[in-house]
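To assess whether ligand presence alters the predicted conformation, the chain was also submitted together with adenosine monophosphate. Input:
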Amino acid sequence: MKSIVCGIDLGTTNSVIAFLKDGRPEAIPIEEGVAILPSVVSFEAENGGYVIGRQAKNRRAAFPDATITSIKRLMGKESVIAVGQQSLSPELISSYILKHLAERAAERLGQPINKVVITVPAYFDDAQRRATIRAGELAGLEVVRIVNEPTAAALVYDRVPSEADGDSPYVLVYDLGGGTFDVSVLEIKGEIKEVLASSGDTSLGGDDFDELLKEYLLGELREQIGGKALTEDPGLRVRLLDIAERTKMALSDRPYVKINEVAVTMREGRPLNLDLEVSRVQFESLTADLIDRTMNKVEEVLREAHLEPGEIGKLILVGGATRMPAVFEALSVLFEQPVEHSVDPDLCVALGAAIQGGLITGDAVGQILLDVTAHSLGLKTLDSVDHVTREPDYFSTIIRRNTRIPVSRAEAFRTAVDRQEGVKVEVFQGESLSCSENTLVGEFFYPLKPAPAYSPVVVEYAYDREGLVRICIDQKGFDNRKEVTLDIRNRKIDEASGGQPDETPVNYLAEKAGRLARDERLAESVRQEIEKIRVSYEEVVRSGEDESRVDDLEDQLLELIERAEEELESGE
Ligand code: AMP
């Protein structure tokens, strides 16, 4: 049997091992079907042994001195880590992680793993690279190559079909992990990827976002008890950090997250609960400085490479924390181009290392086909108007193109006027900021409960592999939820409503028809036809007798409205 060369991303927070299967890189599940292994080692005083990964992470609160995290930061330094009676080198501790990955992978693949490619940050110096090779050797592995992390990520995106591939040979890799931030500019010359410049901050990562949110939660908890001090409770800090991280992750997909945690600490013999809602807007304003710090580094690396933002051909996101929408937005503003995020940012580097392994052994490496959304999906909002029709035309994206499916994302929108009766939800797909240049894939009416202007409405799109999009629309603070399923491939819409019984869009349709019936730009015959149907429609709705007749008239009215609008548009 031909021996395989696995790729390993030996990360500060998490590590991943991958291999090439039929020419395509695949990450290998290590713990309970999950490929991401926390880079944590915890020593057990009882038997002199140690545990790795999630189990080790879970021991951290109870055994902080015996649990080693972020060992990567000490690689290549003359440090000695004292654990109980033992003194251990960073290389040795890293070797335990590597050994664990190789052993689990061997079990999965049913063959021993002897050879590996390991990735390191572009800024690692010679001593740090040598220490990484040594860690591999201590784990009983032959390190056939050390590869820069951004280079590994670029190797993956080389094989992902993309429309962003222009003529520019320059790629920028933005890597925001748990504890570190790295940004590099690469020049691609055929198979060779050269790091032109790299920068970063070894003490900035997703953990800092958790820390700021944790401090905010602590403040809220104090407020709940009338601003009094909380007694020192080490368990509370750990618990709040965990809640903060989970909340941060959920806020990447939705605009509001409810926190409802019981007994986060004890006060005067009674458990204290944490019960509040955090919005993405709040979280982003708490953490805006952190995003700015990364963007300063991006600008620094561009200066070093003597490049303008416009000269970068491709932007690649790596590291779990790049799932935060604020990262995407900051980069889109500076570079005015789409960001490549279709490959799981946690796995990308290991996948690239596996590709490098395949290239070394001469294995064919094929294209990477991903289950991603082919177009961005969003809806029409009021932010701008079409200059011809004077109708709102702004396309607000909910699920961006090239997002892995299945996926579910939600965004909050605001009503325009006091006591707004409802909204016509028009679902579009495409890449233009103007709906008129995108494709309408479905529309429906959503009646609103009386509320002041600017009250929030949350719209959630859940996109599955079959091309079905479930749209959930919810007027925040009211029991007013509507669910609609849209078949993107066949353009069919299926409405169902939760909470209150469905209401007919009578006011909306009648009002729109009435306006068109008075529009002198339309032919008199068309206006008469609209008015006739409108009157019958209102009568039938008022009598509330014949539901199928209401549906019929509604269809006729919608058709007439559409025709009239088309006529107006072509006549302008
Ligand atoms: P990495 O070191 O690349 O594994 O990244 C780990 C960091 O990514 C941690 O700080 C995680 O909290 C963060 N992370 C993972 N998933 C998400 C998400 N959906 N939204 C925001 N941060 C995330």
